[in-house]
Write a structure and sequence with these properties.
single chain, mainly alpha, Amino acid/polyamine transporter I, 17 helices, NRAMP family divalent metal transporter, NRAMP_fam, transmembrane helix
């Protein structure tokens, strides 16, 4: 692989992975570990396999076509791309409210700062990165540094919690408990909504597309899932160590209690740093990816990407300051996100069969059928989620 392609691959992989590792990611992992114990390892393993299949289907079609997802959708059915883009942008905006809340919480833990003020400061940092004259390079460096830092800090907490690794390994292949809800939730939290497109669109922006680059695309897709999964596994075994020691995990803030029980006062400060890093990088990933979905709709947007991206972050910040509690917004956005993955995946699976989009390329049969199964299951669960939400 060319050195330039390797750098592009890492940038795309880290952007996707760091977009996934947000406040919700940390909370879900700690909460489900407290509920399922070592058996949650099986859920993680199953989700990794599903995530890889979904991500490879989407990344491959985007790369071979050389077009972003919304343009592919519009080629299949005029107007479909606009609908998909609107869903992704709304979901990204809503989740950015939660991401900024998480960033504010992280700074409160670290410095005793007011949560709203911390959210505003974090938004200013994110805006500063996009206003920098080499914003693309700055974004790549920023997410890589914070991504590596989070993994090492999480590794320390996992070590301090003294987890029962043998039990975790056994239950990963032979679980005592299973939760379909947990499986669907963490799949959605890793490749749902805008997240899976973050890396695919980043590769496009860096000129990595076409059949000749499929090996690079596959490596990027798998690497992105791998980075996010390492973080999830480390948090899982840290939480498992806490639960196995007989400590109770606070349902109101599961990850904070894991860090505090495992590392004491220092562990709680580390939680603040990890929470802030996870939140601020998710703000950046959400803003970048959401704008890639709408930038091709009008030349004004295309020629003013920085301004539009900054406005996206500003609107998120203002909405958070006005709403204060973003929980209900996140619930609605989460339900909407439940439809984005199956819809996007279905679009890509159909597009993979259209010579006008992918030329003579043929998607591997195993990847196609596995993708169909995942799209159907996620669509069913999305309908169930909306039904529970609005009845």
């Amino acid at each position: 692989m060319k050195k330039s392609n390797w750098g592009a691959l890492l940038s795309a992989a880290f952007l996707m992975a760091i977009s996934a590792i947000g406040p919700g990611f940390l909370t879900q992992t700690a909460l489900f570990t407290s509920q399922l114990g070592a058996s949650f390892g099986f859920i993680i393993l199953a989700s990794i396999l599903v995530d890889i299949v979904a991500q490879m289907n989407i990344w491959r079609v985007v790369a071979v076509s050389g077009s972003p997802a919304q343009e592919i959708a519009n080629k299949l059915l005029p107007g479909l791309g606009y609908g998909l883009a609107a869903m992704v942008a709304f979901g990204g905006l809503a989740f950015n409210i939660g991401n900024l809340a998480g960033a504010g919480l992280g700074l409160q833990v670290l410095f005793g700062m007011d949560v709203t003020l911390g959210a505003v400061c974090s938004a200013i940092i994110a805006i500063g990165i996009f206003l920098y004259k080499e914003a693309s390079r700055a974004m790549d460096i920023f997410v890589k540094i914070l991504g590596v830092m989070m993994i090492f800090l999480m590794l320390y907490i996992a070590f301090k919690s003294n987890p029962p690794l043998l039990e975790a390994a056994v239950r990963t292949v032979s679980p005592q408990h299973f939760s379909f809800t947990a499986l669907v939730t963490i799949i959605g939290g890793t490749v749902g909504g805008y997240i899976t497109f973050a890396g695919a669109h980043r590769l496009l922006d860096q000129g990595i597309h076409g059949v000749d680059n499929l090996r690079t695309v596959d490596r990027g897709a798998i690497s992105a899932i791998g980075i996010a999964s390492v973080m999830r596994i480390l948090l899982f075994i840290a939480a498992l160590g806490v639960v196995s020691a007989g400590h109770l995990i606070d349902p109101n803030n599961p990850p904070a209690s894991v860090f505090r029980w495992a590392g004491g006062a220092l562990g709680y400060k580390i939680f603040g740093l990890v929470m802030w890093a996870a939140a601020i990088t998710s703000v950046i990933g959400s803003a970048y990816t959401s704008i890639t979905f709408i930038k091709s709709f009008h030349t004004v947007i295309q020629s003013n990407l920085r301004v539009v991206t900054v406005c996206f972050i500003l609107i998120s910040c203002i909405l958070y300051a006005c709403i204060g509690n973003p929980v209900q917004t996140l619930v609605v956005a989460g339900a909407l996100n439940g439809f984005i993955l199956p819809l996007a995946l279905a679009v890509m699976l159909i597009a993979a069969q259209q010579t006008t989009i992918v030329g003579q390329y043929r998607q591997p049969i195993w990847l196609t059928y596995a993708g169909i199964a995942i799209a159907m299951i996620m669509a069913y669960m999305g309908v169930q989620t909306l039904f529970e939400l609005f009845t």
